[in-house]
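Students often ask what a holo structure prediction actually looks like on paper. The answer is less mysterious than it sounds. You provide the chain, you provide the ligand, and the output is a string of discrete structure tokens encoding the 3D arrangement of the protein together with 3-methyl-2-oxobutanoic acid.
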Amino acid sequence: MGYLVSDNRKVTTHRFMEMKQNGEKISMLTSYDYTMAGIVDKAGIDAILVGDSASNVMAGNATTLPMTVDYMIYHARSVVRAVNRALVVCDMPFGSYQVNAAEGVANAIRIMKESGCDALKMEGGEEILDTVKRILDAGIPVMAHLGLTPQSINKFGTYAVRAKEQAEADKLMRDAQLLDEAGCFGITLEKVPAQLATEVTKMVKCPTIGIGAGNGTDGQVLVIPDMLGMTQGFSPRFLRRYADLNTIITDAVGHYVEDVKTGDFPNANESY
Ligand code: KIV
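The corresponding structure tokens follow.
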């Protein structure tokens, strides 16, 4: 059981709502594979996001756009096999829900069936509201994602903070209200001013989960290779690094190479 976690029951979307009502902050991290998800779950995380950021940190793509439904199912299924307690939320990838509601529902059902995850996350506001409602009607919990939505990076043209201008902030507030009223169980707010995120959090019934959205949200999410210091050359202001695994892994691999080259590994105790 992890730090400051006393409740060992499986986290559900219902529990997510309770946590907001009780003023208990929600912890969320991404994971994409069995081994990491098992560690993260045992450490006491409340929710694991199988993010389409797998496209960047697992596959080395520049954006999340190449991610497919098949790849998301592969990653989510690997995570689900390792997890006992955390709520597992899987991203719907670019192209899987933007065409029309029927296609969105079909892809949502497929991801739920084949991955075994607990809920889905979708980027966008009013533009995708009809599809979100249809997916909710199918019995699938949806977490919304507003602010910097990486699947629209080609439209934005920059990863800079969103909704600094009043018109975009007003739209974000309206979108959040519509998604909350539709029945989303959470809203991710990415890279928006802290004050705006706090206002959204106070306005909506469902919990908000921030990344680069300040401390006024109901919870926080980070991309795990970033917060563990595995990735390099990515240092946005919102990112706190909790370890320097890049150095630790580099040292360990270097040591192994040396031991193999010198004949030190394996020794007699490590042989049959
Ligand atoms: O894909 C992802 O990792 C995400 C987080 C950045 C919220 O959507």
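The first strand starts at residue 26 and ends at 30.
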